[in-house]
Task: structure prediction
Amino acid sequence: MLIACHAWAYNNLPLEAALGTIARLGFRYVDLGTGPHLNINRVIAQPQAEAAAIRTMLDRFDLSLTDFYIMLPHINAPDPAQRSAELTLFGQLLAFATALGTPGVTLSPGLIQADGPEHSLARSVVALMRVLQAAEATDLRVSFEPHMDSVAHTPETSLLLLEAVPGLSLTLDYAHFACQGIEQAALKPLLEHVAHVQARQAARGRLQTAHNEGTIDLAQMVQSLYMYGYRGALTVEYMTTFGWHAMQKVNITRETVLTRDALRAARASLEILPARR
Result:
């Protein structure tokens, strides 16, 4: 398993400085995402040139890309024009994502909209089918992340979405379930669908905590994923969106290093585990 760091941890820095910081922390792999590090208008207008500039930065710091997160939370909006705009944006970003050389993209499955979870989930199914159709000509893996406020914030709704949209895979962040008090054992039905993993510490009612205050058993998480055949990246993802679902304002670098080391230790212990049959 590769151990990566999400560039979102350093959204307060320009992308080049963020990548340099991540490399100096000993990471060789990184996740990128839309947000402050990307000028979307430039990316759409000049996808090849913008991707080449980022690849040059990645090469300078000896970093390889493990995922590109495209934030489209209103892909299932009640307003057809808003849905269409989000899907159009996804299509426009495909050329950039492909030029970046990312192995996959992650999306929000869509938020729970004003007309309720059932209508929101139904529109998410249609939207994500269209996303997969748009990406069909590429080699990109397409995953959604079950997250707070989304139509797929529980194991049950995540499975419903996976069953309804064949070909879709999962980017799993245990913190969103720990925040709801959902036990790690309840996530086992999801593990065979996992294509990417994000990790940070969290606890019931707090979407982000200091490492020593979290309730996620990272060693058990890594073991369970391994036993279900997962061999992809484990991305440390501390966030600067302090306050969202009681995300604690932590020392990003310190917590990133602590989580990195915990994941390294968990990975090292896998050598003695038999493969799951």
In short: Residues 2-271 form a domain with the TIM Barrel fold (CATH 3.20.20.150). The first helix runs from residue 15 to 24. DSSP finds nine helices and eight strands in the chain.
